[in-house]
Structures
1.
Amino acid sequence: MRNGGFMAGQDDRNRKGDGLAGAFTSALSLLGAGVRVLSGSALFDFALNPSSSQSIMARLGAGAAGGIDSFAPTGDPFRDEARSWFEASKQSVELPARDGGVLFGWLLPADPVWASPDRHALWSDFGRGRRYGIFCHGYTGKPSDLCVEAYLAHKAGINVLLPAARGHERNADRYVGMGWLDSWDLLGWTGLIVTCDPDAKIALYGVSMGGAEVMMASGLDLPGNVRCIIEDCGYTSVWDEFSVQIGMQLHLPPIPFLSAASAVCKRRAGYGFKEASSVNRLRSARVPMLFIHGTADTFVPYEMLDKVFDACASPEKERLSVEGAGHGMASATNPDAYWGRVSAFLGRHLA
């Protein structure tokens, strides 16, 4: 049901990894710094530059590679209904980006009376003191991947905002931020809500890269309106996650390849892989947090749950391990435990 069904596309991802690994094997005939620069640029373009013809986003669009967070398992009786609701109800919203230009998202009001006939959100109609959820999708995904979560929140009377991550959907003209750049954008999205509803009660929720995004936001100067954060299978840092993937997908060591890619990312996108750390931001967290992870997750290894939970400085924090759940599959594996815990957590903090 979630946007993270990684295992469903394992064969395609193996082919994708083999193809890129072959390109690197050819490059290894070069020597010294030339290899590091070439590999760093190639890795950056593949993973983080959607405008590159060699990017994973381009390969997904051409059907040449399986997605990482975009597979939806079958058997979810609510997904078709939720997707139809999402498409019929979504309203475009815009946020001026701190580095220029505009970022886009979708707003789904809890009450249809607020729907705007021109399909743009009439924020001023929301009144005051209402409940909001900002839901953050995963890598190579899109906001509609969280249509079921948004639909359930809508039924509970929560207004849902689903920003597209940098490098994704309508924000595909930017480099992928892996949650780090997007965490700063969350300050803007929360500020947009608070400007229109000073008494708003806001929850942040994210899965996979979105989970890392909300953890990275936890240590920023969030407005007091943000009452709680829920993260599902987010990673400890971009470096740690890419270290797992470069070995599993490409059979390459992190050094020098990942070091080179991080240097390229710092120069072109403005952040390094070690700098982009959920763990470091969590050390400044003050908002109540719920951490969720499937015990069978090998894509974002389950062991990362202990590290992020232990790092969290919030005086109120909880964790939920879902036995046997793979990456992003916790809610589908045990929906009663998952949604029971999430509903109780939101009920306490958005009351």
2.
Amino acid sequence: MAKPISYTLILAFLLAVIVFPVDAKPDTTIVVTTLSVLQDYVQQIGREHVTVTSLISGLENGHSYALKPSDILAVRQAHMFVTIGAGLEVWAKQLVESAQNSTLEVVVTSKGISLLRNTGSIHTKGGKHTFGNPHIWLDPENAKSMIRQITTRLIKLDRANRRDYLANQAEYLRELDTLQADIKRRVKKLPDRRFISHHPAWPYFARRFGFKIVGNIIEHSGAEPSAKHLSTLVQQIKKTGIKVIVSEPQLNQKIPRILSDETGARVVTLTAMPGALPGTNTYTSMLRFNVSTLLETLSP
């Protein structure tokens, strides 16, 4: 559960309101997103008609992000706030309430998307399993649904530029379709598509492109793996000949390195968030990077 905002934080926020105005282009729709992937979606659709910032750049932990006074100010001055939902940003509701922006358009992009369960990343609330895996954007078909929702809300706020938003959306969706087809063609040639995942961010990605996640180092968000679980993974890797362990740049690399030393499997670093690694500044470049890295590592 998110921690209540302290009086110190509120005071810092009030000072920020006085001192730090939002650096927005004139006559644009001001959008704040929780994650950099959402920032990229908004930028691709809104282009010159939006000023968009992300609270999380890519290297922070979206599950346990600590709010800052500048976040409250940004949302207070925004026209639109875009989130994933699905239990990922447990702090987002508190942020919206603290910003006290009565005209804010809040977009929860997981709306209407079927969440995968039993993937090792079920998010909980009050001790009960209430959410599925929230890493929906790693499947481009889910991304297309999220993009359409963003486009609809931008048009609601700025009907004067409706034609531009729709044209940009159509162009972007075509780009995603072309990219998907290319990735599937490349992956299809790969005989062994199995890997161990450090953090269970990859089931949507694996399902879409034909990879197989054999196991996860971290079974549940926020829980360290037990010695028994790690021993089971070592035995599984040795028995099945798994060659690759997929980690992410924001995660502690100690355990993947231990597993690699024990089994000979190679640790590779992918990213679930644009901008977290060189050459991944956009959603599409991130997908290309991840697939190319996996193909290079898994190829015979």
3.
Amino acid sequence: MAAPQLDDPLLRNDCHSRLNPTRHARIERPRSPEQVADLLHRAARSGQRVAVAGAQHAMGGQQFAEGGWLLDSCALDGVVEFDRTRGLIRCGAGTRWPALQRFLAARRARSGEGWALRQKQTGADDFSLGGALAANIHGRGLDLRPFVEDIEAFTLVTPDGRIHRVDRAVAPDTFALAVGGYGMFGVVTDVTLRLAPRRVVRRCVSLIRRAELHAAFEQARADGALYGDFQFAIDPDSRDFLDLGVFSVYLPCEGTPDAAHQLSATQWRELLALAHTDKTAAFRRYSEFYLATNGQRYGSDDHQFGVYLDGYHDAIDARLGHRGSELITELYVPRASIAPFLAVLAEDCRRHGTDIIYGTVRQIRAEHETRLRWARQDWACVVLNVHVRHDADGGRRVRADMQRFIDRALELGGSFYLTYHGHARPDQLRAAYPDIDEVLATKRARDPQEVLASDWYCALRDALRGAAA
């Protein structure tokens, strides 16, 4: 894993794992659907393939095309239309969550009431709305389906350069393919989101063990909690590893949001360093902070935003003496299987020396709208940040780690998320996504020239083509 040439304007990499340095032949930043259509026409005539990038947080190569053209959606931004009556907002696909949040906050009543986003990814904020649609993301809602539920409509430029307005009624097949389709079926240029009334919620925090977790989530839902998660201990030398965790839920309440008690950037840097060098101390500090916020009130939108430190790993690399980063994996199991699954993961990590830097458990409701569907049933979702050394051995180790984790989830009737890496074997892909061969066949039928062909798509196509179903 050679260090990327950061001064190369045609080189892009993902923001978090930094494991996808990719040099493109050209990078274009269209400002309208018509300019996107023109770009796709030119690419088709030139025999070039195109990938579409938003904020570049995916880690499986979905937004890059080695030697191809990169369509950077950053100029497709801003609010196009806001329907205050129905709670619908149309934004450019390159719009980031903080910009949307600022727009909505400026239009709240003095009481704080107004429209708010329903869910977004947590852990970072600078994601694009188009990327959220392409990956069919989710947040930490306790009773929410993936992002598809929040989408009213979108504008899509298909590989043949045609511009379509897509919703469930007008083009249901295209809607189902494009949402969660990672850019295979067209370039999304704007998205109309369904907003929710902004509410005040109270954070309730406790320390519990994995054996209590399923019942705790069920009780939180019964109590009316809207959001929640479980952030677990990460020290494999401790009996608490993937067992003891901070359980936080957010219940609707009266009143106004409190002045937020937050960790500073410096405190976050210290915590991230400790997560690599003294994991027990890291969890102790983190849990102490969270317990101190018990009872704090937040806006239902505000608590979904946080701090992400770009380039945080540079200082950690200097301390560790090697280049590295974290690769994320997201695994799903039936909700009642969460305790045995965490126990199996803990045993697996200890046996193989897998270095967990952070982990959390969330909940997700099933959806039945998209074709490349990951939320096939109600899941418990385990997110793991795994430390990776940027050398050949590190690459081999993390590939083996990712495949073992997927096997453990599949053994319990579970699944995994495609966004974070491309290490899954063909048999794992087909087990978790039974329709994946049919979806790729539809892709080839709709885009026979494979104009929209990211590195992720090409690797997926070749892997499945080379392995009999």
